[in-house]
Amino acid sequence: MDFCNFRLPLLILAALGCCSEGSPLLNAKTNGVIGKNVTFKTTITSTQDFLTVTWNFNKDPVIAPIITSVILMNTVNIDEKYASRIVYNNTTCELQLGPLVKEDEGEYILNIVTTKGQQLSGQIDLAVLEPVTDVKISSNLPEAVEFNSTVVLSCSAKGSFTYKWLNGSVPLVVDGTHMKLNAVGDELTIAEVRRTDLRGPILCIAENALESGRSAPFNLTVSYGPEKVVMTQTPTDSFLKKGSNLTLACSAQSDPPAQLQWMFSGEEMPQKTTAITLTNVEEKHSGNYSCVAYNAKTNRYVSSQVAVVSVLEALSGTNISSSSSLLIAGNSTVNITCSAAAGKAESMEWLKDSKPVTSSDRIILSADKKTLTIVKVVKEDAGNYKCQLKNKVNKDESTYVMVINYGPESVNVKGKNVVKFEEPAELKCLADSFPPSIFSWKLNGTAMNDSRADIIIDKARVTDSGTYTCEAFNPITGMTKRTTHTLAVTEVGAVDEGLSGGAIAGIVIGVLVAVIIIACIIKRKKKSSTDIP
User: Fold this and answer.
1) Among 39, 133, 243, 320, which one is most buried in terms of CB atoms within 10 A?
2) Beta carbons within 10 angstroms of residue 6's beta carbon
3) Does the pLDDT of residue 499 top 50, yes or no?
4) Is the pLDDT score of 225 beyond 90?
5) CATH number of 29-129
6) What PROSITE patterns does the record tag this protein with (predicted)?
């Protein structure tokens, strides 16, 4: 069966509208813009149960066909007027139309006949809008005077739209009296204009339902001032180092820009610039600085705040001197004095190992705090002493390392009291001393040829038993301290850990004495037997 023979019964079914269901269109109304495309959206996801799909344009009183699709025969018939202007989706039955012209405005009808003889039908109204172009703002005044002028701003554009005004990036707020809009919204009136009314820039937005246009930023000049005359100082300190630089800058809110005049202690300075710099300042530059702003249009003079500047010499070359270079604990008294080569200090502080020094019976600060006296130093007085000087422009400091010679103290020997025969043994002599002590050793009262702090015995013998005396000597303080340590070497076998070192040593010494006595008796008997009566 060809398309022409099949079309007639389908059209009859469509005309009868039997068993029709709800609209397959997503919306009942939509908008488009001249020169752009519009798509009529549907709720359809598949056409496998459809016989025919038709789109018509109802331009009262004429209904013009746009496209007819016979699904069963896989044929599509597009009216020649729309052949190059539509895009049809075979799956969703959606229709894209464009580029739009004003004559495309009207009602569009979608009719669908299913394989079950049901008809789906929907209508959508298209409104074709003109594009928004040529948006601009004009003013009734080229220049306004604050509190005197009334400004009227007009917004114009091509197209059909409504109007919005922006002050910078936020919507313009009107109060109906000082600032108001006309009924259409394209005219903004500002009475007794203030410069804060138009901080802007002012923007006008013309828009329709689909698009908008924005004017170029508009700024209106309002003469005012000078006011808020501010002078800044770099550096900001009221007290400056001698030889440093001073920069003063003056600013004022004024339109047209204000003329500036610099003042020093009530006298006019030759500079009339927005900023001045004084290099290598001296005491003669101490005084009061200010600037005066003048607006020739408003004929007003306004002065800035006054900056009071004092020039002082900076502290430098701080040094700590000591009354003695050799300090011995318990004997020496020392004075350390802090002074600066240049500048005058207003305050002084002493620190020891980063902590403030406090006065006591032995530690005395002079009235001006320049000299620190320590009476009969002790070893705990050793450390890093810091003197910090300050005035209003800077601070300086110096560090002195105090060395205290002391000792020896707490002399003792570390090591075992009992070792087995041919086992290694080590004795170490310790002493608290500065500078470090020189050591000497004695065994049973006899000097040993060893000046080290430790004695190492690789294989202990009975002859290594006895009393060891360690003597520590400090060559700076001249002090000597000694201590003793008893070592007992046993015969091969286990050492009785139950006896103390002294007890074991006593036993060993007793055994040695007994052996000597027995040897003497035997020797005497042998001699007696050989004597002639």
Assistant:
1) 320
2) 16
3) no
4) no
5) 2.60.40.10
6) IG_LIKE, PROKAR_LIPOPROTEIN
Q: Cα separation of 139 and 147, whole Å?
A: 17
Name 348's bridge partners. 389
- H/E element holding 249? strand 246-255
**Residues paired with residue 68 on neighbouring β-strands, in sequence order:** 54, 77
DSSP 170-231: EEPP--SSSEEE-SSS-EEEESS--GGGG-S-EEEEEE-SS-EEEPPPB--EEEEEEEEEEE
Q: What are phi and psi of 136, to 5 degrees?
A: -155, 160
| Chosen CATH of 316-402 out of 3.50.50.60, 2.60.40.10, 1.25.40.10, 1.10.150.120 | 2.60.40.10
Per-residue model confidence as pLDDT tens digits over 350-372: 999 999 999 999 999 999 999 99
Where residue 507 falls among pLDDT bands split at 50, 70, 90?
Answer: low
Strand order in the sheet with 151-158: 133-139, 151-158, 187-190, 179-181
Q: pLDDT for 407-447, tens place per residue?
A: 999 999 999 999 999 999 999 999 999 999 999 999 999 99
Listed in sequence order, the residues at least 6 apart from 508 whose beta carbon sits closer than 8 Å to its beta carbon are 462, 465, 488, 489, 490
Sequence-distant (6+) residues with CB within 8 A of 476 are 326, 328, 405, 435
- pLDDT at residue number 62: 86
Q: Supply φ then ψ for residue 477, to 5 degrees.
A: -80, -20
